[in-house]
């Protein structure tokens, strides 16, 4: 199976990161790095939901459009969005115009706006597995699509009323936000804070 491969600069990286420059930058500077903060995690949660069924590259290339459309993913702001805002979002070519995903993002913001500050961060990070007990992936085949922790996180978020967060989406969130480090063993980005 495929292990880390040399990038344009000769340094070894996860193979998925090398198809575009956008991916190289995202891989090297963001993916797998610990991310905290309710608004920052709400953004990632929302973008992972929008990615469902699509390529992450599609979302990555529209991320600035999403940030503009959703007022920087500030929970308090998105929670006040009206039906007029929803119609604006459905007409915005800078984002993915999927009614169910937009509805879920707005509903999630309204729900999260009532949570105490830091609660989303605390809840999500409480499902981070013990890194010392996880095998370091050597090849892409060693990386799961779901885990016991992502399944439990998905259930916990759904139980609290959040939408569009299944176990696969929860695992992608865990990878993106550094709850797990799925950079391959020889990857230049492995273990970066």
User: Spans of 5+ residues with little confidence (pLDDT < 50)?
Assistant: none
Q: Count of DSSP E strands?
A: 2
Share of β-strand residues: under 5%
Percent helix, as a range, is 40-55%
Global mean pLDDT: 97
Structural overview:
By secondary structure, the chain is mostly helical. The chain is built from nine helices and two strands. The protein has helices at 21-29, 38-51, 56-69, 75-78, 83-90, 99-112, 119-125, 148-159, 167-176, and strands at 5-6, 12-13. Strand 1 (5-6) and strand 2 (12-13) form a beta hairpin. Helix 2 packs across helix 3 (56-69), helix 2 runs antiparallel to helix 6 and helix 2 (38-51) crosses helix 9 (167-176). The longest helix has 14 residues, at 38-51. The protein is globular and about 50 Å long.
Entry summary:
The chain is built from 9 helices and 2 strands; from the N terminus they run ββααααααααα. With 193 residues, it is mostly helical. A two-stranded antiparallel ribbon has the order 1-2.
Keywords:
193 residues; mainly alpha; 9 helices
Chain-wise SSE layout:
Elements: E1 5-6, E2 12-13, H1 21-29, H2 38-51, H3 56-69, H4 75-78, H5 83-90, H6 99-112, H7 119-125, H8 148-159, H9 167-176
Antiparallel strand pairs: 1-2
